[in-house]
Amino acid sequence: MESAEEDNYQKSQTACQHLNQEGQSLEQLVSQQKEGLANVVSTCERLQQNLEACQQESQKLELERQEVEKQKKISIPKTRYFRL
Questions:
Q1: CA distances from residue 69 to 26, 62, 72, 77, 84 in whole angstroms, order as listed
Q2: What are the tens digits of pLDDT across the range 42-78?
Q3: Within 13 Å, how many C-alpha atoms sit on residue 49's CB side?
């Protein structure tokens, strides 16, 4: 009987060690996934900031373009010189 109990004990110990190793592997994978997601979030935040900066620059350029168009429409009287 003791031999069967020892055998079961050894099998249980081996199974526990295997499960602990799998658990550690899973913890490492989860840690890597979290790090990867953090990098994705950081990249998205930078892209959002770049997009906002581009939109502001685009609005600024559009206002400048409109101002140039207004200036073109303002007709500057041409002075004609006549010889006497």
A1: 63, 10, 5, 17, 38
A2: 999 999 999 999 999 999 999 999 999 888 887 666 6
A3: 6
Instruction: For Cα atoms 73, 74, 76, give the angle at the middle one, nearest 5 degrees.
Output: 125
What gap in Å lies between CA 30 and CA 40, rounded to an integer?
15
Alpha helices in the chain (DSSP H): 2-73
Token reading at 29: 């994978």
Residue 61 has, within 13 A of its CA and on its CB side, a CA count of 6
pTM above 0.90, yes or no: no
User: Which pair of structure tokens corresponds to residue 77?
Assistant: 């009287």
CA 18-19-20 angle, to 5 degrees, is: 90
Extract the tokens encoding 5. Answer: 């109990």
